[in-house]
Amino acid sequence: MTVDPRSHTPVYVQVADILRRRIESGELAPGVSLPSEARLTQEYGIGREAVRMAMSILRSEGLVSTVRGHGTRVRSSPERQRVELPAGASVVARMPTGRERNELHLDEGVPVLEIRHGKGEVEVKPGDQVELTRPTES
Amino acid sequence: MTVDPRSHTPVYVQVADILRRRIESGELAPGVSLPSEARLTQEYGIGREAVRMAMSILRSEGLVSTVRGHGTRVRSSPERQRVELPAGASVVARMPTGRERNELHLDEGVPVLEIRHGKGEVEVKPGDQVELTRPTES
DNA sequence: CCCCATTTGTCCGTATGTATC
DNA sequence: CGATACATACGGACAAATGGG
């Protein structure tokens, strides 16, 4: 897999796509370190900026986690707690606001579930830790 | 609103925070273009890199959408279609895979709802266009 | 159609800070 | 301690896309 500088899609998006495929295919398994930024710039013949923006995309998708001084690793998907969606409620998925990310201690690239109860009451739950259920009626 | 280079919080985070507030307050309404990168570097007396990283944050939050040669606009949240979550099903929120982003034509920073029906059947819906409901039982 | 101003994309050089090993 | 690697931040330069005239 290689990068085409003349393509209409930005190089940093192409690099993110390539790495995403390598992760989703299992070639880069959870816990495995990605090549360093310097390595990737050489490997694909591109600049730092493109590599770093690609990493930024993958972090924003929750696929990888970067530790300063160490590198970037593939994240493993966490356990999910099953929570019942109350009758009369509805739910939407969206990205958290900055405030919500702090309060819920969310990593980058983790969406939230916004549960809307009856009368304007809204509850926000971390999207990577919750599975909402609607039980079969008894 | 201004930026403090000596703060512990990075300049680009500060810029993202400022722009996010201007968007959420309605000052920058959906469809409106943000100031250009050059404009923002002048306005806040910072480098272009910090500006671009701030934009990257806002894109990853689904707040804005950038087009090369044109600019960055505040995303308008489309109407959400109300869909009933079937009895016995469950749902999780996560970021889409690369394939899903293509097939569903999703922008950066848009999560998906993964609906798990009874026996391993899985359905994926764009998170910015759907509101899942559980009606009150009759 | 071309021309042009604007705007984002990309690369490079440089520098400093911080975290890991 | 040093070597490595990423984070932040500035500057310059050119390429490429957009949109208007």
UniProtKB/TrEMBL annotation, chains A, B:
Residues 9-77 form the HTH gntR-type domain. The keyword Transcription applies. CDD domains: WHTH_GntR (cd07377). Keywords: DNA-binding, Transcription, Transcription regulation. The keyword Heme does not apply. PROSITE patterns: HTH_GNTR (PS50949). Coiled coil: none annotated. Signal peptide: none annotated. Residues 118-128 have a biased composition (Basic and acidic residues). It holds the Pfam family GntR. Residues 118-138 are annotated as: Disordered. GO terms for biological process: negative regulation of DNA-templated transcription. SMART domains: HTH_GNTR. It comes from the Bacteria. GO terms for molecular function: DNA binding; DNA-binding transcription factor activity. This is GntR family transcriptional regulator. It comes from Micromonospora cremea.
